[in-house]
Amino acid sequence: MKPIGLRARVSAAFALGALILSACVSLVSYESTRNTLFGERERAAVRATYYDAAVVNAGITGADPNILEVLRALDTGSDRYVLVYLDGQWHSRSADPAADIAVPQGLQEMTAGGEPGAQRIRRDGGPALIVGIPLVGGAVFYEIFSMGELQRTLQTLALVLTAVAIMVAAAGAAVGWYVTRHALHPLTAVAEAARGIAGGDLTTRLDPDTEPDLAPLSAAFNDMADQLSRRLERDRRFAADVSHELRSPLQTLEAAASVLHKRRDTLDDRSAAAISLVTAEIARFQALVNDLLELARSDRPAHREQVDVPELAQRVCRSRNLPADLVEVTADAPQWWHVDRRRVEQALGNLIDNANRYGGGPVTVRVGAGYLEVDDEGPGVAEKNRVTIFDRFVRGPAANFRGGTDGTGLGLAIVAGHAAAHGGDASVSERPGGGARFRFTLPGFETS
């Protein structure tokens, strides 16, 4: 499972914090508003009930009172319902015999004892408030107030507060995303600088003044880059110096071995075989030293000039006894490229030599817009080896399988180094129909 990134975690924390805060504020606001509205509604209901109870009390004081007429004279509207309990009977404006069911037993006992009271109840599926007022002669007046409209108002308020909480949470997530984006911007610069160094640009540095809080990190990064650059430069100089110092004694050995090799016919078979072996190993050693010296120089900037690359590719093929028509030029490939002639020629030659040694020979040398390709008909390169094969002193499985000892394991590393000097890279893929396809890219090349 892919781990959640820092930006996502911070944004989620902002959103959760905003949601909790807004939920608490909304809950407190809702409860406060609810209590206030219910309190005001109950006080208004009590005042109205006392007023109506006074009217009813005056109407039933006389002899043979008409309770139904008294109740109908009250201005109660559609959201209020009145009851009178008199002489063991319930009276209402509709003379509903089952009306006493709406009055809780506890409230009836309280009013029967001469104390007024109020209680919240459920009536017709909605909230209601019933207020009871004792009257003269043991009568009790009850008035029921519907709270349905108040409930709908509170439901609307709850929906509004919920929507506000959700919007506040979304706004918190947006703020968290914005804050982390700007807070992590210096780290993005560090990542870009690290990628630049990994890509071969050892001049990449961070500016400590850009973000004062990250000045120690910038200083440490720059110091690391300086030390890495110095170490690589020391290694490059060491390889160059060693290779250069070995050239003179190797040339002497090569000359001496050449003299002995010419006279091997005068020697016995064992001595002649030893001379041939020494000559071959000296030649291989000479090639290794030359490749090491070339690798040491590959870190230098490319010396660009106008080069007829299609003609250069044909010349490289002819120098290796290959037909010039092996070169295929794509329709979008220009003739003149602004590149380093020596590096491109050597890189292409190394790819062709690699195909001759381990790939059964090249079948196509392709010149495209900003790239060169060499196709062979060998066993190809396994996907797991397609990156490491360009490392130094790495020999592919084909070389080991063929038992070849003429290669140095540096040819493809030199190709990668020359590609990097031009700002490109070297890669290998499977050729359609079998074999390997090696590509040498020159991105951003200039043409005339």
TrEMBL record:
Entry EC number(s): 2.7.13.3
Keywords (A to Z) from UniProt: Kinase, Membrane, Phosphoprotein, Transferase, Transmembrane, Transmembrane helix, Two-component regulatory system
CC per GO annotation: plasma membrane
Subcellular location: Cell membrane
PROSITE patterns to which the protein is assigned, alphabetical: HAMP, HIS_KIN, PROKAR_LIPOPROTEIN
Annotated Pfam families: HAMP, HATPase_c, HisKA
Domain named HAMP: residues: 181-233
Name of the featured protein: histidine kinase
Source species of the chain: Actinoplanes derwentensis
Lineage, top ranks: Bacteria, Bacillati, Actinomycetota, Actinomycetes, Micromonosporales
